[in-house]
Amino acid sequence: MGNDKVAESGFRNLCTEAERERFITVEERELFERLRVKRNPYIHPRGMDRKDRIERRAMVEVIELDTILADDARLAIGSIFRLLERYPFAFYEDDEKRLEATHKTVHNSSDVSPR
Asked: In this predicted model, what pLDDT tens digit does every residue of 15-32 receive, in sequence order?
């Protein structure tokens, strides 16, 4: 149903392609890039000399570690919920009916060609 090569090429490339296809805005792509950069230290811890290290951010920003974790989580979750409020990411009753009708039309057609 989608471009598997794009999906497998990493989050940055996925966001770039989503912006190119106008699924997300420039601002959303930039936000998701910031989130990607913030996420990496959680997943791939590095040395304390790295400016993106969470503990270093706490020291530099003079803020508690728990506050940084909560702020990062709020930003990430809020971003996703805003994205999920609109098509093609949101599915409301009307969208489900439209998709169902599209599915029936495509599968009942004798002239189905790949996009």
From this structure: 999 999 999 999 999 999
Each residue's pLDDT tens digit, 62-97: 999 999 999 999 999 999 999 988 878 877 666 566
**Which pLDDT value is given to residue 75?**
93
In a domain, 113, yes or no: no
The angle that helices 65-83 and 54-61 make with each other, rounded to 10 degrees, is: 110
Range of the domain at 45: 4-108
Residue 31 in any domain: the answer is: yes
User: Is residue 49 one of the residues assigned to a domain?
Assistant: yes
Note if the pTM is more than 0.90. no
Q: What is the 3-state secondary structure (H, E, C) of 38-66?
A: HHHHHHCCCCCCCCCCHHHHHHHHCCCHH
How many domains would you assign to the chain?
1
Interhelix angle 26-43/65-83, nearest 10 degrees: 140
Q: Phi/psi at 112 (nearest 5 deg)? A: -100, 120
DSSP letter (8 states) at residue 29 = H
- Is 115 among the domain residues? no
